[in-house]
Amino acid sequence: MVTAALNSRARRDEIVRLAMTTGLATVEELAGTFDVTASTIRRDLALLTSEGRLTRTLGGAIAPNAHPEASLRQRTGEAFEAKRGIARWAAAQIRPGETVLLDAGSTVGALAHELRSATALTVATTGLTALQELADVDAVHVECLGGTLRHLSQGFVGPLAEAALERMTFDRAFLGADGVTPDGGICEADLQQTRLKELMARHADQVYVLAHAGKLLRQPFHAWAPLSRKWTLVTDHQADSAVIAAFAANGVEVVIVDPDGHRIN
């Protein structure tokens, strides 16, 4: 809890900082954080909105363009070593003869790269990166789920992709995320993305969410894919121990890996 001794201006500055960090701030959460009444927070939000520092939402506020969605090209170089380690560990879990599902995204794209040496494998994917990585690998049978292409994420979404998913099951599904929380699941910019990820998780025996430490507990957008079945979070060694404990306490298996793909927990 932030001390109540903060003056009004400092409190409002801190509200803006929190909104930019988490993406979304609710009246109830902010009132508890600052130990003030909900009406005080509402007055703060009204003033910050009038100044253009926040945008009001139902029950709270978000920083304007706090987390604009980055393109796949922009994300590819982000946390490169962490993504490589995560991808290497994930690839080592896959066995010959399995049918696996690869999401779109840069980390899952790195996993597809690691699978170029695989044999007797069937890969279904919604991601252009995975398709490009595996297009010339004869030992990997590739199924493209199709649908409508989201240019920013370089992945397919929509009813055609969903219809294809309904007709398949998988040994393992590897999902990416813009943000991930223990109770909410996967956060993304678009409801079509989260709907598809939810279906992916339902159709796989084992579900892995590949997310480097910077994505843990982030809530940059308003679309969510709840993960009702048991799932595994695969992250890197820079993840905070308290954050890892929060996932574990919610029944999530957490795998922490180093840049070479070795599990360290």
Automatic annotation (TrEMBL):
Keywords annotated in UniProt: DNA-binding, Transcription, Transcription regulation
Where's the HTH deoR-type domain? 8-63
Q: Does the keyword ATP-binding apply?
A: no
Species this chain originates from: Plantactinospora mayteni
Reading the lineage from the top rank, the first entry is Bacteria
Q: Which Pfam families match?
A: DeoRC, HTH_DeoR
SUPFAM superfamilies assigned? NagB/RpiA/CoA transferase-like (SSF100950), Winged helix' DNA-binding domain (SSF46785)
What this protein is called in its record is: DeoR family transcriptional regulator
Task: List the taxonomic lineage.
Answer: Bacteria, Bacillati, Actinomycetota, Actinomycetes, Micromonosporales
* PROSITE patterns per the UniProt record, alphabetical: HTH_DEOR_1, HTH_DEOR_2
What InterPro entries is this protein classified in?
Carb_Metab_HTH_regulators, DeoR-like_C, DeoR_HTH, NagB/RpiA_transferase-like, Tscrpt_reg_HTH_DeoR_CS, WH_DNA-bd_sf
